[in-house]
Amino acid sequence: MTTQAARRRSNLTPGFCVGVVLTALIALLAGVSFLWTPYDPTLILIESRLLPPSSAHWFGTDHFGRDVFSMILQGARNSIAVALIAVGIGLLIGIPLGLWAAARRGWVDEIVMRSNDLVFAFPALLLAILITAVAGPSAVNAILAIGIFNVPVFARLARGGALSLWTRDFVLAARVAGKGSFAISREHILPNIANVLIVQGTIQFALGILAEAALSYVGLGTQPPSPSWGRMLAESQTFFALAPWLALFPGMAIVATVLGLNLLGDGLRDLLDPKTRVER
Domain limits of the chain? Predict the structure, then answer.
């Protein structure tokens, strides 16, 4: 085993391993929901309403008689889809903007950064309210709100990382060789800041899960009949004393997903950042 491989292995902390397991489990549940659920998550059976967890209904049923476990499975798929697309929007728009601002500087940098400040003034929930006031509540509008909020996060991160590299010798050598700003940003700057962007993407993914749950909780995210963890929590409030499992299981799903992604992000930071690698 090489020294580098040994160092990487030594950074596989228990927290990182737990994060990998939790994230893989949630992803597996979301994938399984495409092929199988114990019951139709939208099937209403009034005669089966508010049944406690049992062998027939592992997580019980809700006030409409829907199987909670089936709703958790499909809710995982919906939450992951919304967060993943929203983070993708932030990556695809924010990174080029940050690299462009760092390469051009001057008025371009000023316009990009002040625009980012303007977007930061509107949290994802407020953006969702503004968007849904015009277009109506939906998962698509939740994706737009979370995605727009992610753009300045990645733009600032890409700009900060790029600025620290533009004065490095290998970048100066590339400029002397006749390469333009676009080529240098793509071939030299981006690969050197990719590790930081990957870690931040993992963190924003976790925040996207929370944001989707929050928007669905207030009725601005995924709309019925599609299950959503946030809306399941909102609907469970009325029946909390009678059927606490209605809040327990979607709450645990959100906690497990966000915890797993945060632990995964911390572990990736330690693995990918040479400054944090230590021999154990």
Answer: 12-39+57-274
- pLDDT tens across 147-175, in order? 998 999 999 999 999 998 988 888 888 88
Instruction: Specify whether the CB–CB gap between 11 and 264 falls below 8 A.
Output: no
Omega before 225 within 30 of 0, i.e. cis: yes
pLDDT, tens digit, 9 for 90 and up, residues 65-118: 999 999 999 999 999 999 999 999 999 999 999 999 999 888 888 998 888 888
Tell me the residue type at 137.
P
With respect to CATH, is domain 12-39+57-274 assigned 1.10.3720.10?
Answer: yes
CB count in 10 Å sphere of residue 88? 15
Query: What is the amino acid identity at position 42?
Result: T
* Residue type for position 165: L
| Alpha carbon distances (Å) from 159 to 59, 75, 90, 94, 269 | 46, 35, 14, 9, 19
- What is the Cβ-side half-sphere exposure of residue 59, based on CA atoms within 13 angstroms? 23
